[in-house]
Structures are given as C-alpha cells and as structure tokens.
Design brief:
Length: 335
C-alpha cells in the first residue's frame, strides 16, 4: 500500500515538473515572437523614432538581456526549490527499484534452496505430515524411496492399493544392502548413539540383526502385495544420513538424527535439493544390485530364492509374523 502511494506521489510530481517547464518555454516563445513582430511591422513603429535600426538592435538587446535575467531567476528558483524535490523523488524511485531487485534476488535464492515445510521429530507420525504426503502422492506419477529397511514405507504402500490412482504409479524402493555388514553396523551405531545412553557390543549386534531382519521383512511384504501393486525393488550400498521420498512435485527428506519419526523437510521440484537428490537416486538405482520386480505369478519358492540371494536365513513364517506385529504397531500409531 505504501509503495503504491509513494509511486503515485512521484508520478504526480514528475508530471507537475513537466507542465511547469513546458509553460515556461511556451511563455518565452510567445514573448520573443511578439517582440520580433513589433520590431518588423512598420505599422507598429513609433513615428517619433528616427533610427529604426538602432531601435531594433536595442529591442534585441533588451530581449536578450531579459531572457538572461529570466533564465537566472528560473535557475535560482529551480536550484532552491524544484531541484531538491526532483532529486528526492529520483533518489526514492531509484532506492525502491534497487530494493525490489535485491528482494527478488533473495526470494529467488530462498525458493531455490529452502524447504517449504518442516516437520519436527516425534514419536508418532504427525497427521499434517501424513496428509501432506498423501496429497503429493495422489498427484504424482512416481514414488521413489531410498532409505534403510523401508518398514513404514512398505506399510504405507500395503495400506493404500485400494485407491485406483496407486496402481498407475511407478514405485521404486532402494533398501540398504543386507549383505553389507559394514553399512548395517554404521547405520545401527547411528541409531544407538542417538538414544544418548551407553550400549554394549551385544546391543550393537542385536541392532544390526534387527535392521537386517526388517529389510527381509520388507521384501516379503512387497512380494505378498505384488498382485495388487507393482513395486521395483533394489538394494544400495550408500551411507545413510537421511531418507528420501521423491514425487513429481517435490521430495521429503527425513534426517536420521534421532526419534522414531525424525525431522522431515519438504523441498519443491524447483529447488536445487530436489534436482540433486533426483539425480542421486537415478545413479544409485543404476548401480543397485540386485534389482528385481515380483510378478503376480511368482510363488513362495521364487521369494525364497530372492531372500537366499540376499543372505536371509529366516523362515518365511517368522518374517510374516514379524510383519504382522510391525504393521499392527504402525496402524496403532497412525490412528
């Protein structure tokens, strides 16, 4: 509102200055024309004047002198009154233009770098976060996940295939390679350290095994749901400090910094973060091994072969029982 008022005041002052200048020029021109017409018109001459040439020279001299005096007065008036106002208006307009330009630069930088939503770490899923993700998921053609065991993501996929739009999506999950003992150990150490209490080697061993079992259970869940939802499944060897969930409109980055449901940020498609994570996912997917998709005709024997290839020694019954308890827990948390 203030900007529009200032802009209108500046335009009014500029118009007044233009009108004032034009009026002065017009009056000066009229005065010169009248003087020269009188000097050149014989009927207007005074018979008492003997030398008209001298009179004309005198008139011209008077006109020139008058114009110089007028110019001096106009300059004095302009420099004392008008110029200050003109410079003030020009300076204010220049400052406004510069401020708008600087603001646009900063806004562009923030739009390219900053998340539009931030969800703090909690012990239960935040309803506003879940609602936001559901809206983005419904409008997206892709759902690309990269993380550790993918337990909650698999639960989400299994709970949604009743919706028609979910069947038309390209869903790809990249889970942590369960055969890489080093990556599993480092990921488990991060979780234990964030609990902020001492842990033993046995605690670390159990955490590693729990993480590995969660990965196997996710594979079983994807297989059991393959007749309703097609999911591409791969395994990566990347150190994990965050989980990424990529959609057409943006990406949810969940940072592994503690909590059952850690801090999550949403970066829109136009941000540098989205573009970088999208390219990272594509490159990791190309090197993911193994990478496969279950079909509707695959049997438990095919599933067992895949699990054996991943180093699984658990029985399918045990993994499915583990899934039931895990999904029951998530269901209670999201009520």
């Amino acid at each position: 509102m203030n900007n529009s008022n200032q802009s209108g005041t500046g335009e009014a002052e500029s118009l007044a200055q233009s009108v004032f200048t034009i009026a002065l020029v017009f009056i000066a021109c009229v005065a010169f024309i009248i003087a020269f017409v009188i000097a050149a018109n014989p009927a207007a001459r005074d018979p008492a004047i003997v030398s008209w040439k001298a009179a004309i020279v005198l008139e011209i001299a008077l006109a020139v002198g008058t114009s110089i005096v007028s110019s001096g007065l106009i300059y004095y008036f302009y420099s004392r009154v008008v110029e200050k106002r003109v410079l003030t208006v020009v300076t204010e307009n220049a400052a406004q233009v510069a401020a708008k330009y600087a603001t646009s630069l900063y806004e562009n930088r923030f739009e390219r770098m900053m998340p539009t939503e931030v969800y703090s770490a909690t012990t239960v899923p935040k309803p506003e976060y879940e609602n936001h993700l559901q809206r983005v998921l419904a409008a997206s053609r892709i759902y690309w996940f990269k993380g550790d065991d993918g337990g909650f993501t698999v639960y989400r996929i299994n709970s949604l295939p009743g919706q028609p739009h979910f069947l038309r999506k390209e869903i790809t999950l990249l889970l942590l390679d369960p055969t890489d003992e080093y990556l599993l150990r480092e990921r488990a150490k991060m979780d234990l350290a964030q609990a902020k209490k001492p842990y033993t080697k046995e605690d670390l061993k159990q955490a590693i095994e729990q993480l590995r079992k969660g990965i196997f259970a996710s594979v079983v869940a994807i297989f059991d749901n393959s007749h309703r939802t097609r999911v591409n499944l791969g395994f990566h060897k990347e150190h994990l400090f965050f989980r990424s969930e990529i959609f057409d409109e943006g990406i949810f980055l969940t940072y592994y910094l503690g909590g059952e449901f850690p801090d999550t940020c949403f970066y829109p498609r136009k941000t540098i973060t989205y573009q970088a994570c999208l390219e990272n996912f594509r490159q990791i997917q190309k090197s993911a091994s193994p990478f496969f998709t279950f079909s509707t005709t695959d049997t438990d024997e095919i599933l067992k072969q895949k699990l054996t290839m991943l180093g699984c020694t658990y029985d399918l019954t045990e993994l499915r029982s583990f899934l039931v308890s895990l999904f029951t827990k998530y269901s209670e948390l999201t009520r």
